[in-house]
Amino acid sequence: MHPLVGSWSIDCLYGPGAQEDTFLVFKEDGTGWIELAHYVTCEVDTFRWEATRDGCIRVLGERCFSDGEESASELSFDELAYRIAEETTPDGETRPVVTFAQPVWVGNRRWGLLTRDVVELAAPGPERLGG
Fold it and tell me: Which of 120, 130, 125 is nearest to 28 (CA)?
């Protein structure tokens, strides 16, 4: 399994927690998404990804769902470098934290791992978007 496969969270890196979170999901089949959730899912960018070399991935956005609208995603990285290291987060857990070489989403470069079990997860679509 690729080390990025899993569901990653920005919120778990801060304490005591916020009313919103941004999730970054990488699936083994090369699909993934970024989901901004504030009580409900507010925005989703779906993408395809692949490892290009050790410590780098390519990301190509597919669809963006936001404010009831669907459009092409603008996510695009040819060589996105990353590193994963164990860190103790404010919730007292020691977990893998991924740090990307450049911002991936609204200035964010770091996410903490929530779970590697993402086989059953499906990207949220317009039917899951709330207000």
Answer: 120
